[in-house]
Prior knowledge:
- There is one protein chain.
- By secondary structure, the chain is of the alpha/beta class.
- The protein contains seven helices and ten strands.
- The strands form two sheets. The chain has a six-stranded mixed β-sheet with strand order 6-7-8-3-9-10, with helices on both faces. A four-stranded antiparallel β-sheet has the order 2-1-4-5.
- Strand 7, helix 6 and strand 8 (193-198) form a beta-alpha-beta unit.
- Helix 4 crosses helix 5 (144-155).
- The longest helix has 16 residues, at 174-189.
Amino acid sequence: MIIECNNLTKTYPLTGKVVTAVDNVSLAVRPGEFIIILGHSGSGKTTLLSLIGGLTKPDSGEVLVNGRSNWQQDDRALTAMRNNTIGFIFQFGSLIPTLTALENLLLPLCFGRTPAGTRQTALDLLDLVGLKDKINAFPAQLSGGQQRRVAIARAFINRPAVILADEPTGDLDEETEREILHIFKTYNTQGTTFLVVTHNNALAETQVAPRIFHMQQGILVED
């Protein structure tokens, strides 16, 4: 398995009570799989991705990526795993406002000792998502959908084994959504593993993902 989640639980305090965002979730992901997790806002999908990607520490349970437990590694090893093994597509893009589209793509290359990507890789990725004419544009000069496409391109810059995508087509028009899903499927056929969370039931109807899960109140159930 490339990802193993064993009895993951994560809670947060909220106005005097405790909310269970992820409730005893177990999930095994094989290399090259494409998985979609459906759920409404607040169902725990984003928290689960954060736990898997090593951005958030669980209250209990463990996550193993390529057989190594996220939270039994030191900070340097965990950072290297996040940078080299996992590509993140965050729900709101999370671009650096003072960097151009091209510079936002090149930024992850600064954190790897031997980065897989290059400047030409970044240019090719921006072309792939239809933004080759926006390489010098700053995020404020881009529409929400264009910012999302830059964020999607950035996730692929280090040629990660796994893509964790949080609402990747949330603010894209239908045509661009189809183009992005085609890109995902192309990378998937080349061996990249995808774990996509969304509230968009239409994505589950595209037959792009052979495994579909539903998440509600922190509980994950396979369809």
